[in-house]
Amino acid sequence: MLNIGQYLHKLLLVHQEVGVPGIGIFKSERVPARFDEIKGTFLPPSNRYSFIQHEPVDHYLVNYISKTAGLNLEDANEALEKATVSLVTEIGNKGEIKIDEIGYLKEQEGAYVLVPFAPDSFWGLQPVKELISTPSTTSESEVVINADELTAEKGVAIQAEETQEAQNTFEEKSNNGKIWGWSIAALLLIAVSSFWWYTKNQSKTSVQSLPIAQHDGKETKPLIATDTVAIQNDTIKKVIDTVPAKKKPLIQKASKTLPYSIVLGSFKTMDLAIKQAEYFRTIGIDAFVLESNMPYNRKKICYGLYATKEEAKKQLEKVRNDINPEAYIFP
């Protein structure tokens, strides 16, 4: 028997949501590292689990079972189905079941509720107590320099170095002044030459670019740009597109003209089936609940109504690939 809890625990380290067919979707919320002021402890990052009772649309679990157990997808689906049937049966008998590494799954008022274990820390990290350190006092010896200890030879050397440095600074400023003077003169010459050349060429360009007017005695009317017509058409299209389409009802029934539909899943009660159909619509899947007057019949969640079985078969492969691999045609 598969240990679904172990598979869920590993998958939820990578994915935020992992679905179990026939039960619901398990979710993982990352809790960042934090400091507990009451205990004076740094807590590591952790995982917090939750659960929603919706028919899953992902295939993470069956693919992971197929890969780790060395089974093909068909055998992995069969093994997963047996495990989920066993879980549902045990919940029905005992009212709850322990899912390893995750928590206790209980049945309350016809719905499943998850009571998770304490948050699981990443990679086995443990809380760390805050370290309280006392600053150490150290005395530094002060170094005192007595100016009277400097010898006369050092004083003479310092004075000679200052005199030489002042002389070098004067010569450097003189040379820099000459360089700046020549640079400014060259820039002025280049600016005057550029202005004269630009003025000469601009006058030629102005004369050559004058348009030649043609008069035929008739008044010329301005033409309307084709872009304006395109913009008007686009505007009309946008206005038409913004008109809201009429939403299809959540509960529909088959008719004589459209008797066939594709079943995505089923629930015991109409309320659960409606909630699942609403969830499908929030993620872009136009699902609905097929109306049924049978009191003990499972309420089917369907996709599309078709006139013939052949039309339904054309859509069945796409539905199995994109939504649920176990979808089938009804009736």
TrEMBL record:
Keyword Membrane: yes
Keywords from the UniProt entry: Membrane, Transmembrane, Transmembrane helix
PROSITE patterns on file: SPOR
Transmembrane in keyword set: yes
Domain of life, per lineage: Bacteria
Ranges where the SPOR domain occurs: 254-331
Membrane-crossing residue ranges in chain numbering: 179-198
Listed SUPFAM superfamilies: Sporulation related repeat
A molecular-function term among this protein's GO annotations: peptidoglycan binding
Pfam families assigned to the protein according to its UniProt record, in alphabetical order: HU-CCDC81_bac_1
Residues spanning the signal sequence: none
Protein name: SPOR domain-containing protein
Organism of this sequence: Olivibacter domesticus (Pseudosphingobacterium domesticum)
